[in-house]
Amino acid sequence: MGIGNPVTGYIDQSINSDLGDKPTAISKMTIVVEKKGDTGSPRFIKDNKGFQVMFNPASLAHTMAAKWVNGTVPPPSLNAKFALNQFQHWLLDTLTFDLLFDTTEPVTGDDSVSADKLPEDVRKYTSRVINLVRMDVDLHRPPLCQLTWGEGYPNGKVLFVGHASKITQTLSYFSSNGKPLRATLRCEFTQWIPPTPDGSTEAHSADVNKVYVVNPGDTLASIARETLHDDALWRPIAVANHITDPLDLRPGRVLMIPTVDR
């Protein structure tokens, strides 16, 4: 029995010995897909429940990076501590994980596979995830996605908000007539940064050093404590995000966390 995961720390997963390390999840990852007409930040409506994956990923890789460039070489008279790398901007976060799909035994949940339908072409179930990198005819681009784990949207723990930037499908088990029955999707999602009211983005601004996705039960004070280590610094967060009502924090909203001079 494996308990926990590196993001939420409260998901229980059991291992099916017949299929190696395939986890049978009690609480599954939910992918909420942006729909035309959604409003807010990010653009997901409350009635948009999304869909659950067939099996929880065994691990999640959250990559955060900053770009530095080589500066001008200082003259020998300058102390080396003034050399040479110069910060340029920070890069968008990425979340990478593998999803397993298998139609050789019954599965419960959104991607239900009943015993009387076995075995089915696994691509019937992987297509919903693969379509996240395809053009949406209503949005005229691939949709934004919100990944949650736990109770589902909007009450689950928000893992990530962004778009599917790369999905690789590997088919690994086939029927006697060549029909694929098992597949692994390597998924990469790239962070979405909401625009400011003037239409610009603060993602590369020198006075913003991080973003935070609001979870159920969060307050500005608790967010300030977690990100700036001081409850009293909630006001700069409110100002940076144009929040006029501190009690109006919808789960899933992406907040810019400014750098604060103490």
Describe the protein's architecture and organization.
It is a single chain. The chain has 262 residues and is mainly β. The protein has 2 domains: 162 residues, no CATH class; 51 residues, LysM domain (Membrane-bound Lytic Murein Transglycosylase D, Chain A, Roll), CATH 3.10.350.10. The chain contains 3 helices and 12 strands, in the order E-E-E-E-E-E-E-H-E-E-E-E-H-H-E. The protein has a 7-stranded antiparallel sheet. Helix 2 packs across helix 3. The longest helix is centred in the last third of the chain and has 9 residues. The chain is elongated and about 65 Å long. The N terminus is likely disordered.
Strand order of the largest sheet: 5-4-8-9-10-7-6
Given helix and strand content, the structural type is: mainly beta
Q: Report the C-alpha radius of gyration, rounded.
A: 22 Å
Helix content: under 10%
Strands, total number:
12
The major pleated sheet works out as:
7 strands, antiparallel
- End-to-end separation: 46 Å
Offer a concise description of the structure:
The chain is mainly β and 262 residues long. It is 9% helix and 35% strand. It starts with a strand and ends with a strand.
Task: Give a quick set of tags describing it.
12 strands; 262 residues; disordered N terminus; elongated; three-stranded antiparallel β-sheet; mainly beta; 2 domains; 3 helices; Membrane-bound Lytic Murein Transglycosylase D, Chain A; 9% helix
